[in-house]
Amino acid sequence: MKTRWECFTCFFRQAESALKRINIPNEKKIEIIKAIAKDLENFSPEDTPSYNTYLIFKKIYELSGSTDPYFEEKKYYNQQGLKLYEALKNIVDSSQDPLYTAVKVAIAGNVIDLGILNISKLNLGEYIKEIINIPLAIDHYFYFKNELSKTNEILYLLDNAGEIVFDRILIEELSKEKKIIAVVNEYPIINDALMEDAIEVALNKYAKIITTGSGSVGKPPELGGEEYKEVFNNAKLIISKGQANYESLEGRGYNIFFLLKAKCEVVAENLGVKEGDLVFLYEKAKNNLK
């Protein structure tokens, strides 16, 4: 997915989001914003929005000296997710199709994105329970069941801390019959999940956890380490969580399912849905939507 002009205003909003969380003088923040504005002149619209976002956060972290400004919030949302775990697991286990319900739970969890959305006033528990009952704007569950029958191993690209509790529910269902390799970032970027987050929410009990070997926004193989590249390129079936992974991996011909909430107009338009819609998209069936 290519960067559009609307993405540039979003880049500044995300920079503002990060700088609000970093305790440095006002003058230093102005210096950083000016540096980002200068860098934007060289951003290529041919690159993905997620890659350009990565460049912005990399610059902010370097100039501010902050390595993980979202650390406390990541821990908070991990714990909030764990508090909801039993209730959500009961919803899944008591449903007519636990796997499909687990897919919807995982998609609902994609609201926990501190780079794009302000969810500080959101009643997360009520929101998640409500959103599970909303029909998916794109629902490729039929294709998913078909592709599951062809492989014994799934590569699962995780997204944000807190959200990974909802992924755990889906991974638990999948792990009953499949081997799951789940991927987190090696280094902090926004509120993306790291190895310590995966262990905190007990994902390692149901999946082998590996890292990208990098701190990129989104998990394209070319930005990862050698282990991740090899695992990714040999994957028979990929589940991709979140908008950044969609931006960086759509249209590249992978056997991949995208689970996400369309959080901005640009991504919604690319998907052919409305902003705020919930999506379960099979990459190879995307052209059938047009």
Automatic annotation (TrEMBL):
Signal peptide: none annotated. It comes from the Bacteria. Residues 6-279 form the Damage-control phosphatase ARMT1-like metal-binding domain. This is DUF89 family protein. It comes from Dictyoglomus thermophilum.
